[in-house]
Every structure is written in C-alpha cells, then in structure tokens.
Amino acid sequence: MEGVDRVDGESISRLLRAWRARVDARTVRELRGTVPPPGRRLSQAHVARLTGVSEGWYRALEAGRRQDFSESFLLRVAQALRLSEAETLTLFLAVCGRRPPELSRDQRELPNGVKALLEQQVSYPAYLSDVGWNIVATNSLMGDWFPWVLRPGANLMRWALLDPEAREQMLDWEDSCARIYLAMLRVAANSDPSNEQLRALVKDILAADADCRRIWAEEHDVVEHRDGHVFRLRLPYHGHAEVRVTTHVLLPIQRPDLRFVFITPLEGWAGV
C-alpha cells in the first residue's frame, strides 16, 4: 500500500543509516589515533572496525541483505551505534525475527573481590573475559596497551584473528597467534556444542578470513588455554619497539565462567 513503510530489509536499512548518521565519529574513543582521523560522519568502515568484522559484512547488514548474522554481531552493532533498548529490539526483530538475548543480573555484575583485584593491578595490563572471549572488564593499562579492548563488544578472538592491526602488532602472527588461538577455539567449540555464541564465533572467523580457514583445515592441534604463552609484540604504546611478554590466566572461584588474564614482561627482560 502506498505511503505505508514495509517492515523489511529496506526499512531496517534506512534505520541503520539514520542511527549511524547521528553518531559523531569524533566522540568515539576507540577511533582516536586512527589513520586517517575520523571526521564528523561515522562511516560503514568505522562500524565494521568497532564490531570486528569486514566492511563488506557490515555493508550487507545495512543493505538489508539476508545473511546469517549472529546475535553477538548484532549486539556489537547495537553498542557501536549506541542504540536504545527499543532500537536494539527493532534491529533483532527485523534482521533475525527474535528478541535480543538478555543477560541476567548475576552475569552483568562482577563480584567485588574480582573487580577490586582488577582495578588494583596497576603494574601490568589485565582484563576479564568470558567463555566466548568477550572482554568483560579491563584495568586502565590494558586500555593503554591495547585500545581495541575499549571498543563496543570487544572480543579477543575477533581482534587477534580478524583485525589487520593484530597482524602488525603480534609478531610471528600465524605461528604465535593464529595457530594457538584457533586451537583454543577448537577445544571450546567441542567442550560445549550447545553454546550458540561459540559456534557463531568460529563460523564468523572462518567465514571472514582465508588464512584462518587454511590453518583450521590443515591443523588438528588443540590448546585449552594460553597460560604461560610468550608473545612478541610491537605496540604504539611502546613506540613500536619489540616487547616480549607472557600471559597468566586465572579462574576466579566466584565466577568460574570468567578468565582473569594479566600480561607481564618475559622474565629477565626489562624492555617494558
């Protein structure tokens, strides 16, 4: 009927463009320091960067094309575009025909002891992630070293395996990062086959990157965690000088669904 706005891909496309247009890119902390610097308009490329996907994948959403968009991706879009609850509901209903998942109170709140331990760690970067490697909380130094953790819906695996800056900042990316992280994803995906978030994470990563698909196909290694793993980094925070660090992974007894991770210089190396 003429004059009636149909609830279809075209309609959600107009809404997404309008929601994106109202966000001033200059106010998005996670885009500061990028090259070229963002102007007033938040672009599709900016939203793709903030949500950890390719520009083409986000463009398909905004164009209203039918794709298998995961719940975690749509939630990251909602955060990047600063959507209200009603707008997030509209996005989910239009794209996948269901309501967005709701976190329980217990899942949203951190135990005081865990929160205090994180905040009091001022010597080295530290963060909390959940079973799907979503960043739950960080200390200030983690944000200084790795600004990507401040992005809406930040996810370790999506950054390390899909973000181009990870390949610049993590030296020996394929052997020291990609093969280890994909081996960890293989364990996680098999440990909880009913976890839709983990299945979507693996599917999204393999769909988005040819190198990850190749490594996944040719490797059969499994790794449960990266506690004690050594990384060679080259970060803007250190003036792009090489830094060698090791990671330590703890499981808070009050929240066994979380990982407490902190990063320290390799023993005997004082470059940090």
From TrEMBL:
Among CDD domains, the record links this protein to:
HTH_XRE
Residues covered by the HTH cro/C1-type domain: 40-89
What's the short name of a Pfam family annotated to this entry?
A: MLTR_LBD
User: Which SUPFAM superfamilies does the entry link to?
Assistant: lambda repressor-like DNA-binding domains
Entries under InterPro entries matching the protein: Cro/C1-type_HTH, Lambda_DNA-bd_dom_sf, MLTR_LBD
Q: What name has this protein been given in UniProt?
A: Helix-turn-helix transcriptional regulator
